[in-house]
Write a structure and sequence with these properties.
It is a single chain. The protein has 290 residues and is α+β, with helices and mostly antiparallel strands. The chain has three domains: 2-94, 3-Layer(aba) Sandwich (Rossmann fold); 114-179, 2-Layer Sandwich (Dna Ligase, domain 1), CATH 3.30.1490; 182-271, D-amino Acid Aminotransferase, Chain A, domain 1, CATH 3.30.470. It has eight helices and 13 strands. The strands form three sheets. The protein has a five-stranded antiparallel β-sheet with strand order 11-10-9-12-13. Strand 12 and strand 13 (257-264) form a beta hairpin. The longest helix is centred in the last third of the chain and has 14 residues, at 227-240. The chain is globular.
């Protein structure tokens, strides 16, 4: 089988040179296993996708900036009969953070979320702080990556921010969540390949910040989550990502219970760090699906 490992045009855009190029590490590892695999850019017009039996989404990190084109590309692959991991259905669902409503409706613990739909008008009388029982709110786009247009706001700051948010809403929908103080203690990321737990890490924001992304100064500490935490994270995979090649479950522990922040099923950084065991877990999951 001929496989394509998918990236995006400018590989350094979201990492600022601060992390390994795990795409190359993974590519080398899978090639070493004898797979006929090639690195491709998802929106490269020169690629003949019908030449591939399988397309593996690895780091199309700019998909949210070219969202319609990305979904059209996924449709094209389906029309051409090219298999994709993760599947097009999973990717479409996960590409818009309205999916968190499905998670909350399922009864699994996740951060409470409210939505400001595209084109809507903010009601200045609506007290989201009281509704979500929080002294601070986090506001961010429903289709985004890399903490784009993500703001932390207090009740005093909110009125001044409304005009800017109103401008943003002309372009896309936004979500509102309570600021979770536990994020300062770290956000867990648990990696699952083929539905099986592989490894975990704890991400903490830099001083005076709340964003944990490593390319924004967040720190990564590799820690093995205990069995209870793995079991709680696995519940999200079993419910919403049971047939995926890869899944990253991001969340915080509140009162001893893991609460989902994001379920990453499209282009998560996998924190493989060229560790053979982690890449072997990925390879075995891929082999099982092939």
């Amino acid at each position: 089988m001929k496989l394509a490992l998918i990236g995006y045009q400018i590989q350094e855009k979201y990492n600022n040179g601060t992390v390994r190029d795990e795409d190359q590490d993974l590519f080398d590892f899978l090639s070493g296993k004898g797979l006929d695999i090639h690195r491709e850019v998802w929106n490269d017009p020169a690629v003949n996708w019908t030449a591939y039996d399988l397309v593996i989404l690895k780091s199309p990190w700019d998909y949210h900036e070219k969202y319609t084109g990305f979904l059209n590309w996924m449709d094209t692959l389906a029309q051409q009969g090219v298999r994709v991991f993760n599947s097009a259905g999973v990717v479409r669902w996960n590409s818009d953070k309205h999916y968190l409503k499905d998670v909350l409706d399922s009864g699994l613990p996740a951060i409470p979320t409210r939505y400001l739909e595209k084109g809507s008008i903010i009601d200045p009388q609506h007290n989201y702080f009281k509704e979500l029982n929080t002294p601070r709110l986090v506001i961010k786009p429903c289709i985004s990556a890399g903490a784009k247009n993500t703001v932390l706001v207090t009740p005093e700051e909110f009125p001044e921010l409304v005009p800017l948010i109103q401008t943003w809403l002309k372009e896309e929908a936004y979500m509102i969540q309570p600021f979770v103080e536990e994020i300062l203690n770290g956000e867990w990321s648990l990696l699952f390949f083929g539905g099986k737990y592989s490894h975990s890490l704890l991400k903490t924001p830099k001083d005076q910040d709340f964003r944990v992304q490593h390319y924004l100064g967040g720190k990564v500490s590799y820690q093995e989550a205990d069995g209870g935490l793995v079991e709680q994270a696995a519940a999200f995979v079993n419910r919403f990502a049971a047939d995926t090649l890869y899944a990253r479950v991001d969340g915080v522990v509140i009162g001893g219970i893991f609460h989902l922040m994001e379920l990453e099923l499209i282009e998560p950084y996998l924190f493989l760090d060229n560790v053979p065991g982690r890449m072997e877990n990925y390879y075995r999951a891929l082999k099982d699906k092939l």
